[in-house]
UniProtKB/TrEMBL annotation:
Lineage top rank: taxon: Bacteria
PROSITE patterns linked to this entry: HTH_GNTR (PS50949)
Pfam families xrefs: GntR (PF00392), UTRA (PF07702)
Keywords: DNA-binding, Transcription, Transcription regulation
GO biological process, one term: negative regulation of DNA-templated transcription
SUPFAM superfamilies: Chorismate lyase-like, Winged helix' DNA-binding domain
Source organism per UniProt: Nonomuraea montanisoli
GO molecular function: DNA binding; DNA-binding transcription factor activity
UniProt-recorded name of the protein: GntR family transcriptional regulator
Record-annotated HTH gntR-type domain positions: 6-74
Presence of keyword Transcription: yes
């Protein structure tokens, strides 16, 4: 007959802190001090520090020097699917919106022209928006569309989903996309727009969307706050 060993004190401490983070403490609430946790669980302060280090790496807590450890805002876990920002937020029970909307027709230039399969001198529609979830800035979005595909004034419809507007107004539906995700930092202007500290981490998601006829419909550069987003992938191993 075997008996189960009780969980290590460090595991008990972690479980206790996770319970606090999930069920009791609001975002930005302060956690108990390292000293009080060490005394409560009869462990060294080094053990407490290691558990907090792990929670910080997971994005569950953040530290302010001289003030303590605090509960992080919950992150939005985004799978890599061909969905719009509005669809993502609504699926999580959040209210999508837009701030600082601008819309102008400009020459494509070499980079955007190549992505959209048009000449550099061709006109494209450039849409810039700060996307929000429950009024909190989450993403700075630049979208470029071939002007010939989107005649007229699209700006009044840009508080909501661009993909829904393209489908309803022009019959344009994205069928597939090529997407690249890069780690980056926010420059001061980007940080201001997203209400985040300058040079804080971010994800740059670059997407080229195609319709069912294979036409490039959109080139999008979306900058997501690194403190509020994580990306989730499901990967498979081919049988040998």
């Amino acid at each position: 007959m075997t008996t189960e060993r009780p969980p290590a004190k460090s595991d008990q401490l972690r479980r206790h802190l996770v319970d606090l983070l999930v069920g009791e403490l609001a975002p930005h609430a302060r956690l108990p001090t390292e000293r009080s946790l060490a005394e409560e669980f009869s462990v060294s302060r080094l053990t407490v520090r290691r558990v907090l280090d792990q929670l910080e790496r997971e994005g569950r807590v953040y530290r302010v020097q001289g003030s303590g450890t605090f509960v992080s805002e919950p992150r939005i876990h985004k799978s890599v699917e061909l969905t719009s920002f509005s669809e993502d937020m609504r699926s999580r029970g959040l209210r999508p919106g837009s701030l600082e909307v601008s819309c102008e027709r400009i020459p494509a230039g070499a980079d955007i022209g190549y992505a959209l399969q048009v000449s550099p001198s061709s006109e494209v529609l450039h849409i810039r928006r700060v996307r929000t979830a429950d009024d909190e800035p989450m993403c700075l979005e630049h979208s470029y569309l071939p002007a010939e595909l989107v005649p007229g004034d699209l700006e009044p419809e840009l508080n909501g989903s661009l993909y829904e507007a393209l489908s309803a107004r022009y019959g344009l539906t994205l069928h597939r996309a090529e997407q690249t995700i890069k780690a980056t930092v926010l420059d001061p202007d980007e940080a201001r727009a997203l209400h985040a500290p300058p040079f804080s981490p971010a994800f740059l998601v670059q997407r080229i969307g195609f319709d069912a006829r294979g036409r490039a419909v959109e080139r999008a550069d979306s900058l997501y706050r690194g403190d509020r987003y994580s990306y989730q992938l499901t990967i498979y191993r081919d049988p040998q």
